[in-house]
Each structure stands twice: as C-alpha cells, then as structure tokens.
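Hello forum,

I keep getting stuck at the same step: I have a sequence, I want structure tokens, and every attempt I make locally crashes halfway through. Rather than fight my setup again tonight, could one of you with a working pipeline run this one for me? It's a single chain of 213 residues.
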Amino acid sequence: MQAIVSDRYGTPDVMALRQIEKPVPADNEVLVKVVATGLNALDWHLLLGEPFFMRFTFGMFRPKITILGADMAGIVETVGKDVKRFKPGDAVFGDMVERGIGGLAEYVTVPENLLVAKPVNLTFQETSTIPVAATTALQGLRDVGGLQPGMKVLINGASGGVGTWAVQIAKALGAEVTAVCSTSKMDQARMLGADHVIDYTQEDFTRNDSSMT
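Reply #2:
Ran it on my machine without issues. Output:
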C-alpha cells in the first residue's frame, strides 16, 4: 500500500510517498481503508519536532511516528477475532493519537475502542475533521469548564481548528458566545453562531468589553 512517510524532522519537503507493507489487524483491532484524513496542529508539531520538549516522548533525533494524520475516517475492511462492535463495510472514524497516528496511508489498523460509527449525514471528509479539534473543544467547554445554558463564554482564536468547533459547541450548550478573530473571519464566526464578534486587529478585548458587536 502507499503511505506518506516522514522519517526525519523537518518541513513538509521531508515527507515522501512510499510503498509500504499493508498492516494486519491484531485480535482487538480493525483494518480500515482510509477515505479521508484530517490534519491538525498536532501533526505540524510532530512533523517539525517542535516545541523541542515533544521529542522526549516522540523521538529525540528521529520521529517515532513516521506516518502522520491524527484524524481518520474510512471503511472497515477486516476485523480481528475479538472485535465485537464493527464488521467489514462499516463506516467509521476516530482519533488515532493513542494508536500512534497513521492516517496518511491507504490502510490503518486501529484498536476497536478508538473508533465510532460515522454519522450518516456527514461525508467522510467532514467527519475526518472532528476527532482532535472537536473533542478538545467539547472537553474544554463541557467537562473542564462546566459550561451551562445561559453562561457567557469568550472564545479567543475562534477561527482556528478548535475555535470553530468551540463556537458551535458553546452555542449548542446554550451559552452566549463572543468570538475573537481577525477581520476576514468575522462573518464566518457569525455564521457558526457567535452572538458577538471582536476583531482583534482593531481592539484589545482584554481592555474593553463594551464593543461586542
């Protein structure tokens, strides 16, 4: 099978399309034919090997993870003998950080517990944007932040990967949302549901809370 491999740290030019051996699922794993992969800031940091402290976990001089792509959506091809929740042909998606990533490949093996069924109303491409960014936003707002209906929340960086999800999730949880972004992203923030939008290129939201328009 083909995969995009980066076996040293650096800019995207260190990545190369290579022919590698197709993986075989373990007893608790699912072999997925990848349809779409979502890229996140995590992938960028792992590619560069920066910030440097990451190398203590992911490889000091050479990356332990050579196939990036933390978010993946695809179709189950085969399953290990202990897999109960999925069968060949199922559409699935998941966050593969715990698995060691690997979505930039034609096939990937994933432990069953890291996958969920793909929503029928979303494309594979749309679904592949969900795992890392949306889960980060959900956990931050609901689980850590304890956001409740009627609360007010300000989302700084509302046009980024996590930020765009945070705006939508905060609204879905019943909050009044103020989004902070650049001029060109203000309409997008409003479209995603922000009640107020602040252009950080024009004003410092930490010094003036009267301009939420």
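Helices lie at 41-48, 55-58, 124-127, 131-144, 161-172, 186-191. If your local run keeps crashing, start a new thread with the error log.
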